[in-house]
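Known limitations

Files may contain more than one protein. Parsers should not assume a single record per file. Below, a two-record file is shown to illustrate correct handling: read the sequence, read the token line, then continue until end of file.
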Amino acid sequence: MNEVVRAKVKKIIFLLIAAVIFGVILFPPVVLFLTSIKTELDALSFPPKWIFKPTLENYTEIFEFSPFARYLLNSFIVASLNTGVVLVLGSFAAYSLARFRFKGADDIAFWILSVRMMPPVAAIIPIYIIMRNLRLLDTPWSLVITYLTFNLPFAVWMMRSFFREIPREIEESALVDGCSIFRSFRSIALPLAAPGLAATGILTFIFSWNEFLFALILTGSKAVTLPVGITGYMKETGINWGYMTAGGALALIPVIVFTILAQKHLVKGLTMGALK
């Protein structure tokens, strides 16, 4: 009986700890959403009001009185293009490093990872000069190319481990049956590594969607993304908390929906190779 009681007590303690952690994680987005449906007077009240009459004025006004729809579209274009290019190039590079052994393969893999280690702020001035000379400033392509520089190393190292988990014998049998290396990669390796590709794609999309520094420096008015556009509601006359929180709440929706739709593949991808 004592062991049964102790097991129940431990289970209750773990549940309470999980509930506390879950509450801490959810507290910021809940406050963000509640503030977005408050009037300006309620949002600035102290102590904060938890019981109030909700309103959707902030959501309608950011589309009417600011180019929020353009910010949203720019972020979606940049994040989608960057994720697509990263998955295509990263899968080829990762498969090559995982399957073909050649002199300096490990050194190349570490060099790719070292690019990710570099502080982004250290490269902002050279990248700005390059984009200016290419006449790509204030265009989505400047952000796509720049994000590619930092997201591709992450994708290569992540997908490299996924391809390594695929037994070589499956591909070798396909080669014996007459498949080319590219056909084996396309028809066997990619489908088997689909959960890993989904996990990599989701994380890459989130990184691109939330990036602020390069979007601030490389854009001016035409290609402004959501993180930069939302900060535009901070002006000399004060901070429009209603617009900022409404924009922040809307910015969470695509990432949440994307993650929920690919949740099954995301869990498989992040745990791929943990169990044999």
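...continuing to the second record:
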Amino acid sequence: MALVPFDDRDGHIWFNGRLTPWRDAKLHVLTHALHYASAVFEGERVYGGRVFKLREHSQRLIDSGKMLGFDVPLSVEEIERATNEVVKANNIVDGYVRPIAWRGSEQMGVAAQAAKINVAIATWEWPSYFSPEMRAKGIRMITSEWRRPAPNTAPTKSKATGLYMICTLSKHWAEAQGYQDALMLDWRGQVAESTGANIFLVIDGAIHTPTPDCFLDGITRRTVMDLARQRQIKLVERAIMPEELARAQEVFLTGTAAEITPVGVIDGYNFTPGQVTQTLIADFEKLTRAAPARAA
């Protein structure tokens, strides 16, 4: 199937305060963010015309900007209004939203305090991140040689574009070997996450997940943890070593794109999408699909 380039589509993108025709939302080649990764972003899902957890995502965009040393020039409420405006303009009922804020082209060099902070919000229809067949039996993963950095070496609590460079490298490497994703360890050798989602292990009926001290504490992650607590499933947040995968009966990922995705293989370990995973998938689908459609 031929790819549809993201710069050649119909619709509108909210760009610095107004809806802009999709193909006209352009940057200069000397934009600071392109050269120095001075950008932060969000990934959001639209269910039934409503953006899920929009308030949390909008606040995190602002918080991420502060961690990179700049102020997003919009309030949470203004980001929410702009997001809903562009979702409506593109007639998105079920899809994906990508807000991004970045330093512009006013200065070129490592220091760019005078560069303008730009904001854009795009949205498009997007089906499941992994195919139904993959989700049914669980995706295949392999451990990457790249590791999540220590929190004193990068702004690891931000959703900053530069932090995803090693994710792209890891996922490309995994896919070249026939896997769907890569497992990321942290600088200590502990289990951290996948290239774009948080990870959970089910061990003897209890859910274990790494403490997010050097990677993003995902909004979907926290949502699924709340669903587990509502089911009174034991939840343990702790350091997890790779060899503990041998003890897990089920493994799943959580994220805006991944939603809840079962894992069938990591390296030489095999897992079966079982009752805990399937229960949480059903609860998550009920939660997201139950939201009323956004008013026109």
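Parsers that stop after the first record will miss the second one. For reference, the second record is described as follows. Helices lie at 32-36, 54-67, 76-89, 132-137, 165-176, 219-230, 275-289.
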